[in-house]
Amino acid sequence: MAKAKSVVREVSPLPRSSAHHIPDATVARLPIYHRVLTSILEAGVVSVSSQELAELCGVNSAKLRKDLSHLGSYGTRGVGYRVEYLHFQIAREIGFAQDWPVVIVGVGNLGNALAGYAGAAGRGFRVVGLIDSDTERIGEEIAGVKVRPLADLESVVAEHGATIGVIATPASAAQAVCDRLLMCGVTSILNFAPSVLTVPEGVDVRKVDLGTELQILAFHQQQRQDKPREKTSRRKPQRLENIS
Amino acid sequence: MAKAKSVVREVSPLPRSSAHHIPDATVARLPIYHRVLTSILEAGVVSVSSQELAELCGVNSAKLRKDLSHLGSYGTRGVGYRVEYLHFQIAREIGFAQDWPVVIVGVGNLGNALAGYAGAAGRGFRVVGLIDSDTERIGEEIAGVKVRPLADLESVVAEHGATIGVIATPASAAQAVCDRLLMCGVTSILNFAPSVLTVPEGVDVRKVDLGTELQILAFHQQQRQDKPREKTSRRKPQRLENIS
DNA sequence: ATGACTTTGTGCAAAAGTGCACAAGCCGAT
DNA sequence: ATCGGCTTGTGCACTTTTGCACAAAGTCAT
């Protein structure tokens, strides 16, 4: 690497954030790599090969290496990757150190689950606000954070400078909540409501839809039942493996 | 259509399931189309153009048309799509009619939320089992279904012939639960636990990971903050719009 | 030092997905 | 009947993602 390159490319071996541009598909996998590395780090593993790590993460080893190569050259040929070092580098890349302030709107079952998850220490997030319109729930404390009324949305966001908002409301309220979040400075939204959000350019929206996921499974299930005789199941070869 | 084609292609205008092979990316969007169609159908809309429907679904109109073309030729040139007819065709394609029996393992907040969602009538699913290891919760009734102990897993699955299982347990229990589900005939799994599952070929696993989603947002957020001066945000142009 | 062995990093080609642009086809007015 | 105006369905080119296969580069034993 860093040989004669046809295209001018900044080769930055120093610990600065790798400017390059990391493909979306890779970004989506980094958190998994990070989690698995956390596991094996705690288990005392010092070094790991791309092959081993790939199996633990349920991906192809070539893909893993290419993903990691986008962050920099953090491996050693003939040896593998230092678990601790790689763990740290990925953490830095995905902003794990920063404890991002997050506001969650809608404290139903889903909001609750999320508050519990993001509220746990050492995950890189800090729940700074829980908002709900149900007056019954206001004041209730979840994961150490008090539930506050919808009217407080703006002040809560402003107070902690939250830039990530989670919408766990019914679909009917989602767009209105979204608009209010954007208005007070939130630029990243995680939407659990089964509705399509309209946002201005520059805002990052991710959608998690339980119903959609189930229906995708149902579709494949139906395909399998419609024509069970096939060369073999041409389903995507699932090669996955977990940690504990 | 159905003119002289260079390639032999079965033109099946009859209501048989379109055998073709529907791309994964398309399958993932069909449930959204279906939901939006449900909305506008209830609103009394009779006909819709690909342009209108695409905006409501937050996608490109060409993409929408290509997606629909994989199901068959259900539109009318110069006019658009009959909402009711298209709605029905998509429903049939994704197996909406069938009320798939679903077993949910783990009745924490997440399991609860899912039970509520999938348990609602008219979504194409029927929660036939709620399983939890916590003896405190056993017997509790959620969305009309009683929570049963982990030991009953096999009998519950067998009793209703469930082929779709949802894992909403802690990560430490996920693989064991997964193995047991597969053992008794489940072939599709929706995994909410933050762990990578190992499954034999032919089993369909989908993963929903709250932590991963948040971290992807955090990554983009960090990118934006690291270098705020750029030609313009080269973020994916979000053109989304919701219904109500 | 040298050589055998191992594992990374990457060039390359295939596959999948996206979106433009336009011919094909349908409707309604004249 | 013919024409003009729409909208679908799709050919095509471009982008993104995937994974093979191998040179580059390191370790370890001798």
Give the key terms.
Tscrpt_rep_Rex (chains A, B), DNA-binding, Rossmann fold, alpha/beta, DNA-binding (chains A, B), NAD (chains A, B), Arc Repressor Mutant, subunit A, 244 residues, homodimer
Describe this structure as you would to a colleague.
- 2 copies of one chain form a homodimer.
- The first copy, chain A, is an alpha/beta fold and 244 residues long.
- Chain A folds into 2 domains: 24-93, Winged helix-like DNA-binding domain superfamily/Winged helix DNA-binding domain (Arc Repressor Mutant, subunit A, Orthogonal Bundle); 100-210, 3-Layer(aba) Sandwich (Rossmann fold), CATH 3.40.50.
- In chain A, 39% of the residues lie in helices and 16% in strands.
- Chain A is built from 8 helices and 10 strands.
- Chain A has helices at 24-42, 50-57, 61-69, 83-93, 109-119, 153-160, 171-183, 210-226; strands at residues 47-48, 75-76, 80-82, 100-105, 125-132, 141-142, 145-149, 164-167, 188-191, 204-207.
- A 7-stranded mixed β-sheet of chain A has the order 6-7-5-4-8-9-10, with helices on both faces.
- In chain A, a hairpin with a 3-residue loop joins strand 2 and strand 3.
- In chain A, helix 1 crosses helix 4 and helix 2 (50-57) crosses helix 3 (61-69).
- Chain A is globular and about 60 Å long.
- The model of chain A is unreliable at 1-16 and 230-244 (pLDDT under 50).
- Chains A and B meet through helix 1, helix 5, helix 7, strand 9 and strand 10 of A and helix 1, helix 5, helix 7, strand 9 and strand 10 of B.
- Chain A binds a DNA duplex (30 and 30 nucleotides) through residues 1, 3, 23-26, 49-51, 60-63, 65-66, 68-69, 73, 75-81.
